[in-house]
Each structure stands twice: as C-alpha cells, then as structure tokens.
Design goal:
The protein is of the alpha/beta class and about 230 residues long. It contains seven helices and 15 strands. It has a five-stranded parallel β-sheet, with helices on both faces. Strand 4 (about 75-80), helix 4 (about 85-90) and strand 5 form a beta-alpha-beta unit. It is globular, with a radius of gyration of 18 Å. The mean pLDDT is about 90.
Length: about 230
Amino acid sequence: MKVGIVDDRQIDLDKLKFILQEEKDVELIFATTDSEEAYQEIQKNKIELLIADIEMPGISGYELADIIQTHGLLITVIFVTAKSGYAVQAFELNVHDYILKPYTKERLQQSLARFREKQHAGNLTGRLVLKQKGHIEMIPKKDIIFAERTGRSTTIYTIDDEHTTYLSMNELEASLRENNFVRSHRSFLINLHFVKSFSVYTKKSYSVTFDGTKKIAMLTKDKMDYLQKYYF
C-alpha cells in the first residue's frame, strides 16, 4: 500500500516511520513535518492511505481530510493525535481510524490490518463484497447504479435492489475503481453507464437521473467541468 505521513513533531513522525518500515507491503511515499508539503503531495493523489496528526501549524490534519473528501480523492485517512476533541468531526469525514497518542505499535498495526481487509473486500473481480453481521452480500459491480451516504450508513442502489453498508464513501470508491464510477459529490458515487440526464439544481450543483431507478443523485459544478473535459 502507498502511504503518506505528516506530523509536525519530528519524534512522532519518526515513530510512525519506524512502525511502517516493518510492514512489508507498505511503500512510504512521503513523510513530512510540514502540512503544506503534505497538501501538495495529496493533490498528486499517488497514495492510498494518509496518516496525519490533527493540530499542526498551517493546514490541520482535519483540513487535509476535508480536502480529500471534498475532492473525492481515493485516499483513506487515519488520524494519530493527542487531541480527543475531534472524534465527531473525524466521524463526519469518514476517517478510517482515530488513534490517540501515546499509542502502541500493535494499535497502529491493528488499524493497518483493518484497512487491508477493507481493500481486499472490494478486490474480487467484478463483485463488491459487503460484510454484515452474520451475512455476506456479493453485488455485481456492473449492476450498481449509484451510492449515497446518509448519516452513518451508505445506500447502494442497484438495478433490482437497495443495499445498506457502513463502508464510507472513500472506502466504497476505492473498491469501485472501474472507469464508469465517478465521485460526483461528497455524498454520492455514480455509475456513468446508467446516467440519463444532468439538470441544473443550483449555481454550483446538478441533479442526476438514471435508467433503472427514480432516485436522484447530486453532482457538483467542479465535477461537471471534469466530466465535460474527460468524458463528454
């Protein structure tokens, strides 16, 4: 996995590097005490996982996570912080984990293991695997029309059913890397194959209709500009 780490305290950054170097499948793309540098790196979107402190000079870890979600980047975030007061905000940003300092090596390794499991769940060719309590659903990716995040859960709309999961939008997007799937909005992931129309909704957004369902998704103006440049 391609990982980037940022912490303004060198001693904490060194601890992260020491733990990660023992992980055989980890490729450390960047390690920095400068959150501005981390911001430049995540814009390149060459990492899968960002491990970040929260309170840092300049751009905070919370702001980095918000940028990742707002721009629909395929980057999962783990907060490693001494501050406990950001848990609610982290939940709203669908952060993978919230680890309080001081922490043990085993605590971070446990978080990395869960990240690997979630990646693996979406890697079965042509199918999205959803694990619920005592139940596993295997959904053909080609049948997925769009997904919507509402509160704590995500609803996946297919051609013949609806499925509820607690996967975040970032996690779901990472599992649906096929060209047809686009993160149209922080709360929506759409399959362009099923799109029927785009209509102006506000000055900065569009509504999206589909073949196969009467449900509607949302698309930001920035994403419309992106689609027009690369798809239409």
